Structure formats: structure tokens, C-alpha cells
Automatic annotation (TrEMBL):
Organism the protein comes from: Ceratotherium simum simum
Keyword hit for Metal-binding: no
UniProt xrefs under InterPro entries: EDG5_rcpt (IPR004063), GPCR_Rhodpsn (IPR000276), GPCR_Rhodpsn_7TM (IPR017452), S1P_rcpt (IPR004061)
Subcellular location: Cell membrane
Membrane protein topology class: Multi-pass membrane protein
Region ranges (Disordered): 331-351
Gene name linked to the record: LOC101408357
Name of protein: Sphingosine 1-phosphate receptor 2
Amino acid sequence: MGSLYSEYLSPSKVLEHYNYTKETLDTQEASRQVASTLIIILCCAIVLENLLVLIAVIRNSKFHSAMYLFLGNLAASDLLAGVAFVANTLLSGPVTLRLTPVQWFAREGSAFITLSASVFSLLAIAIERHVAIAKVKLYGSDKSCRMLLLIGASWLISLVLGGLPILGWNCLGHLEACSTVLPLYAKQYVLCVVTIFSVILLAIVALYVRIYCVVRSSHADVAGPQTLALLTTVTIVLGVFILCWLPAFSILLLDYACPVRACPVLYKAHYFFAFATLNSLLNPVIYTWRSRDLRREVLRPLLCWRQAAGIQGRRSGTPGHRLLPLRSSSSLERGTHMPTSPTFLEGNTMV
């Protein structure tokens, strides 16, 4: 065991594993540099979007319900996924071969941790929707504490799953057991993680099918348009996640099945993971598209900047901004039966 961990700081181990799996780095291709630049710009947009969602959820007590806390947790995992993918991009290419195994495990493990957190967040949202529909008092008087404990447990499990390779479940010293896509990860570990995620996602889909069946067969107060609208929102989030990550999961399963050097498509796996990152970009768009109040709260910092920049215009007679209560709520708020929040009006026209 001591010899295994002594290899974690070896500067030649990463090169040895990449040479064995014939991983193509394309370090000199201009197209790869352009792609890396675009990915970094994309990830900056991911961080900004999800940061705005997090700020909106944290600072407005209107969004402190179970549903919004879990959506905020999903936004946090998406934000960290953007940061992790930036680090992964900056440390790829020629830099990869200069990493020690412990640095490589940290680079790849961060991505697995954020992916795990996203999957468990989707599971928590599905459970919350089932609890809300079934009228089950799962949380009780100390619901905030229990929700935070659930969120904390999801991150703890994610850290464990993402940290297993650095704790010893890797292929250092066993080249024949190595993954082609992730040359320092054991194939068995990759299969285990993908299987866990797939089972959880299938369970979530089954749970939503059950929820829809309950809603369709229930009285009007349960099966109203508000409840269906909220279910549609979370179902879209789940569907986008599956759509974005299915190609990456498929390439990892192919990696397990293919002998080393037998499947050249595995050398293009980074394109599949780049496509999967779009999920973290689309989630905030879905929240704000489906929730008018959340959209206004997310855009409030930008509107404040616009208001500050328009001081000169107001001096010349341009009407300013004022706050009036909403007359109606959006699908997310109606579905959770929450009070309305103020909205911006410019002059007498709704924004």
C-alpha cells in the first residue's frame, strides 16, 4: 500500500498511462486551442448564470421553500461544474503530461463530484415533488434543518464517490485495468459510477411517472394547472440532463467494453464531455424561463446597473424604475403556493 501511494507524486506516471492507452492529446492543433477558448467562455457564462440564481435564492426569503433550496443546490453544483471544467481545460493538452497522479486525480475528481451532486439534487427535487403531491409531512416543524441535512448528505456522498480513486480505487500499477478515456481510473470504478448514476436517473424517471399518474387521477386541487406546470418545469430539467449526459455515459460504457486501443472513438471523448457541460448552461435558462418572479430576481443586479447607468437619462426626463406587486405568479410560484414578490416597472409598462 505504501508503494501505491508513493506513486501519487511520481512525475512520470501520467505519461506512462497515457502512452499505454495511446491517448491522443492533439497538443499542437490550432482547432483544439480554439475549442479550449470557446469552452472557457462557455464555462464563464455557466458560472455567471448560476451565481445569479444562487444570489436570488439566498437573498429573497420568498425562495426559501424546499423546492427552491433544492434548485439552489443544483445551481451550486452547476456553478462548481463550470469552475471544474475551466480547470480541466487549462490543465489539459501538454500540461496533462506534466501532472503528478495526485494532481490528475484532483482534476478529474472535481468533475465527478459536481456530476454526483447534480444527480443527487435531481433525486432530491423528485422526492420533494412526490412529497408535495402526496401531501406527506416529511419535514415537520424543523423542515429547514432536515432539508439542509439532506443537501449536506448529498454533497458528502458526492465527495466520497469522486474521491474513491485518490483513496486507492485506481489502476496505478495495473495498466491492463485502466480506462482509455480516463487513463488513471480503473474500468471497474468508471462502470460502478455510471451504473449508480443510471440507476438513480431511472428511479427519478419512474418517480415522475408515478407523480403524473397520481396527479391525473386526483381531485382538481391536486391536478390543477399550477401543479402540472411545476411538474413540467422539473421534468424539463431532468430531460435536459439526460439528453446532455447520455452521450458521455454511453462513451464511458463503451470504454469499459472495449479492450485498450480497440476503439478510436474513445480518443474523442472530450467532445462528448464538452456537450454534457451544456446542461449546466441550460439549467438557469430553464428556471428563469419558467418562473417570472425568479427571472426578475435574477435580473435585478443587471437592472440596478442599468438604473445607475441611466441616472443621466432620468435627469433629462426619462422615467425611472419603481416597484409594484405582481398581479399574478409564474408556474413555479403557483405550483408551490408561495406569495408574490415585487416586480420592476419602467414608466407604466411591464418589463
